[in-house]
Amino acid sequence: MSILVSLLGLAFLILIHEAGHFFVARGVGMNPRKFYLGFPPAVAKTTRNGIEYGVGAIPLGGYVKIPGMHRPAPGDLDVHFGRGVEEDPTLARPVGELRRLLEVADYAAARRALEDVRIALSGSSLSPLAAKSAERGLTEIDDALAPDAYWRAKTWKRVAVIFAGPAANLVLAIAIFAALFMALDPSYRVGFELRGTTDSVTATVNDVLPDSPAEAAGVRAGDRIVAINGTTVEGESIRPTIQASDGRPVQLTVVRDGETVRLEPVRPEKTEEFGLFASIGESFRVTWEVTQEIGRSVGRLVTGDGGDVSSPVGIVQGSSEAVEQGTDTYLWVLGLISLSLALLNLLPLLPLDGGHIAFSLIEGIRGRAVAREVYERVSVVGIAVVLLLFFIGLSNDIGRLGE
Predict the structure, then answer these.
(1) From residue 338, how far is each of 12, 170, 199, 291 by CA, in Å?
(2) Among residues 206, 200, 208, 254, which one has the least CA distance to residue 232?
(3) What residue spans define the domains of the chain?
(4) pLDDT tens digits for 139-156?
(5) How many of the other CB atoms lie within 10 Å of CB of 156?
(6) What fold characterizes domain 190-271?
(7) pTM here?
(8) How far is Cα 188 from Cα 296, in angstroms, rounded to an integer?
């Protein structure tokens, strides 16, 4: 059951991401063609105001189809209509005319020529494979030539639509953190922050609050807490153990630079309840600290240290464990995953959102489009990096499962 809840949570985060793209695209005049809950094949669908809304058979997230993400190119015709032309040579003339107009960038005339191709195809007897490819080509090129196509929009609109996905995940993470702070009952703490990952809270101290009991006891950033009052603890059990002290002194045992150090006992201080504005402020603080830690993790990848990376397997495993530990813990982990999705999607790599934002800005500065070939080559590099991260994360997850 916990696995199912964690999968649904991950699907919800992806859906929120896509909803950000969808609503902002509509707001700036790019009429999305599809918005699906889940992935095809469609279980149910309906069309309203030119938008196909549907429920997919694969219940993982969702997707939005924004028209004309790329300027139509002559080479697109070979992909979509090449087989059809081979089977029916009479299609060569209308397809050739459409190619000529795309080459000279006469897009208004190209839309009319596309209708000639559509008429010619309606009178052809093509194989199912060729007919399906041609039908898809008519739809794709018609969307790319439409007035509301993505590539035709002003730079700020394109950036807004793409940024809206990560922004939705970021806002959700902040909202989750703020809600958790507001729901907190007064408790006891000694004044340190533990490092958080996308799937758990570690036992390593990330920061020590000034003028806190932890600072008085000599806790340092980088210490790994291994015991409290002589009892062994792990990341997830540290805070509950301190809270259970009810204000009585606790003695922390930490590992520092490879050595075990027993610190002086300290009396935890009682926290106050968080109001709305204080909760929002705390959520921003936590968001910034986790953002910094994720940034450091990405930086460590450059030096060959990918131990912090998790694949979807590890994320689901970690969140399912959080489900078993309670609603608050699960929501905390869900917020961390949402924040991670936002930040990783902003990496300037195609096909990630950050890559599309970078290319939109480049095209806006240049005043002309980047060649399709450049997009494709950069996308190959980006996909390779994403796959590398996936396999590093999967390797880490397999290693953790074997521990």
Answers:
(1) 10, 7, 11, 12
(2) 254
(3) 75-145, 190-271
(4) 999 999 999 999 999 999
(5) 12
(6) Pdz3 Domain (2.30.42)
(7) 0.74
(8) 30
